Automatic annotation (TrEMBL):
NCBIfam families: PRK11463.1-2. Keywords: Membrane, Transmembrane, Transmembrane helix. The lineage of its organism: Bacteria, Bacillati, Actinomycetota, Actinomycetes, Pseudonocardiales. This is FxsA family protein. It comes from the Bacteria. The keyword Transmembrane applies. The chain crosses the membrane at residues 70-96. InterPro entries: FxsA.
Length: 158
């Protein structure tokens, strides 16, 4: 409860300070423009993050950075929906790739400090190389939907 109260006080002080500096009309215009711009940026960055996750899946690598980026973009979009000047600024910062990369590195480092197995999993996910070839067998006469056979070898570097 104290956090919500602190948030409300900070937002009211920020809006009143900006309003007294540039005027009420300009303050409302800045709040609306920030929300519209932020939502457009959130949509663009969200699509980009989804494509990056799909590309990581296609190339068979762990999509740690891509998934984290997607979560940060979602958090930025959520902050833009919450009314207020401070939350709009924080949301816009999470949508910008350079600041999002800083936040992502900090989150990953913090998570790995809390649970060292996460670091081990990330390092191991970067290690093994999988070489696979898809071979489709000839279907037997009268039989449809023959099973897909995947032949491959896993090469692990240690």
């Amino acid at each position: 409860m104290p956090f919500v109260l602190l948030y409300l006080v900070v937002e009211v002080v920020a809006v009143v300070a900006l309003g007294s500096w540039i005027g009420f009309g300009w303050t409302v215009l800045i709040l609306l423009a920030g929300s519209v711009l932020g939502l457009m940026l959130a949509m663009h960055e969200g699509i980009r993050a989804a494509r990056a996750v799909a590309e990581a899946a296609r190339s068979r690598r762990v999509a740690t950075a891509e998934v984290t980026d997607g979560m940060l973009v979602a958090a930025g979009g959520l902050l833009l929906f919450v009314p207020g000047l401070v939350t709009d600024l924080l949301g816009l910062l999470l949508l910008l790739p350079p600041t999002r990369a800083l936040v992502r590195r900090r989150l990953v480092r913090s998570a790995e400090e809390q649970n060292p197995l996460l670091r081990t999993a990330r390092i191991r996910s970067e290690g093994p190389i999988v070489d696979a070839e898809v071979v489709e067998p000839d279907p037997q006469p009268g039989r449809t939907g023959a099973p897909l056979v995947i032949e491959g070898t896993v090469v692990e570097e240690r």
